[in-house]
Give the backbone structure.
Amino acid sequence: MSADRRRQAAEAFWHDESGATEQAEAITAIAHRLKFRTKSVVVLPKPRKVQYLLDLPALPEAVAARLLVSHHVENKRPMMAAFLDALGVAHDNGMIAEETVVPQDPDKIRAAVKTISESFAAEDVALYLSTLSWQDPETWALLAELPETRLPGK
């Protein structure tokens, strides 16, 4: 991720009201790294927490997963909605219900990927598709094979 996108993701992470568990894990990691008490990190202003999160050399997997989800939910809803529209999946502004079945038609998935890759930045598309594939490899297995999942030149 570019530095700008990483910052956007970190800011979204700290705004995410659904991420309390992962935020607590991040606070613990930051406190450990800085040799601070946990409660000292809790009361830091969000901009400092954003920076400290960005400065961590490694993120716990649950924190990384929530960071990606938060980023997409807060900053990339139009792309998420366009992808789901192209797939023919019912959604609420890019969010699908847990019981929703995603079509496993490879041609439909390829067409949906093509749709968003023509309208959104390659880095954003690659990150979104990689995130889907990482979160649910069974449903999104095909995405890992598509060139749009990788950044150009990588």
